[in-house]
Amino acid sequence: MKIIFFGDSITDAGRNRDDLSKQSALGYGYVRVIGDRLLGPAPDKHTVFNMGISGNRIVDLYARIKAHVWNREPELISILIGINDIWHEISHGNGVDLERFEKVYRMIIEDTRKKLPNVRFILCEPFVLEGTATCATPEMPDRYERFKEVYEYAKVVKSLADEYGIPFLPLQEKFSEAAEKLGVDYYAPDGVHPNIGGSSLIATEWMKLFNEKFA
User: Using CA atoms, how far apart are residues 80 and 54, in angstroms rounded to an integer?
Assistant: First the structure.
């Protein structure tokens, strides 16, 4: 199965964009962990591409979907997007509001299905923790509350998954419960970008869903 992971820096995770044949092209985050778990026992069964780009919002995914996704004709597309649609608004007024987020996400699903009628999806829930990049500051005491708007974006993703009959990967509750036990630093110190603990958490939940729906 040809699988493409599509998203922002959480997916990108420092991947090698110059040579997609190298292991480093999977990056050093959850895609790499999933790649190891899929390709380790069966290297000829799956092909995995990491098409995450740091800083992307939903509109950026749509802008590059033809070159990075459709032209590769994947059988499965896994999407994780949403936090930058809020973060960019908080940082420099260039985010994507909830209505537009839903509209463009819907376009990605519908236009991809027209282009690749047999393609399947996994839609991953965007998430946030209270970390160094998301916590309140003296200049912005409501900073974390604003970041928690991602909960509404997550509801949109879940609603679209239900509407189109697409498997949905819940992550917020998993991260919140895990961070409560071991601390934010173990999973995503800045509240957004997973380290090895967070990457392993995503990979474990993703593999459970994949094995249930696609294996």
Answer: 12
Expressed in angstroms, the distance from the first to the final Cα of the chain is 10
pLDDT band at 41 (very low <50, low <70, confident <90, very high): confident
Which residue blocks in the chain are alpha helix, DSSP H?
9-12, 30-39, 58-68, 83-92, 98-115, 143-147, 150-164, 172-182, 184-187, 196-213
Output the six-digit token pair for 94. 């260039």
Q: Which residue, 141, 51, 50, 45, is CA-closest to 90?
A: 141
Do 44 and 182 touch, CB atoms closer than 8 A? no
> Does an H or E element contain 171, and which?
none
Phi-psi region of 100 (alpha: psi -120 to 50; beta: other; left: phi over 0): alpha
Tell me how many degrees the CA angle 151-152-156 measures, rounded to the nearest 5. 115
Residue 27: what pLDDT?
95
The Cα 18–Cα 28 span in angstroms is 15
The pLDDT value given to residue 20? 81
Taking the CA of residue 72 as centre, how many other CA atoms within 13 Å lie in the half-sphere pointing to its CB? 21
What CA–CA distance (Å, rounded) separates 191 from 206? 20
- Give the per-residue pLDDT at 101: 98
pTM, two decimal places: 0.96
